[in-house]
Amino acid sequence: MTTGKIDPRYGNASATAPAWEAIERLVTEAQLYWIITVRTDGRPHAVPLVGVWQDGAFAFCTGAEEQKQRNLDANPHVAVTTGSTGANGWDSGKDVVVEGTAVRVTDAEALQRLAAAWFAKYGEDWKFEVRGQEFVEVSSSGGSTEGGALVYQVTPDKVIVFGDEHGQTRYRF
Fold this sequence. Notes:
The protein has four helices and eleven strands; from the N terminus they run E-H-E-E-E-E-H-E-H-E-H-E-E-E-E. The model has no long low-confidence stretch (mean pLDDT 90). Strands 1, 2, 3, 4, 5, 6, 7, 10 and 11 form a nine-stranded antiparallel beta sheet that branches. A two-stranded antiparallel ribbon has the order 8-9. The N and C termini lie close together (10 Å). It is globular. Helices cover 21% and strands 42% of the residues. By secondary structure, the protein is an alpha+beta fold.
């Protein structure tokens, strides 16, 4: 069982850490995420993206020519964020940061499961077909990648949650 630890430096030391199940539900149900990768010169690169949380990991895809793919080629360490605190204020909602290493998914069965999860979550807007070791977009959402998209999973090393009364809670895996 994963349990959180309140960091008393950044919030109410007597608060109760949110249950991991509630945080996992928030990450699962989020519609939009941000991913932060590191450019080869060390500068950060942050972009919004869609993805799915499945089997304890976050999955996303990227075109082979995209900046985030070039960054991942050099450094696979990423942070993925989602939440509502920034939009709704300090005392409302939660923001979540998932830190980990992006690992390419190439297994056909795993890719099929992920494509099905994308479709179940986003419907026709993000419908993928698995061809070889890539996703090929078959929807008409506008952002299809020529030649397919590479799929990655990020199993968390650490998850940090901000917001509500607790301030900051850390979950280690």
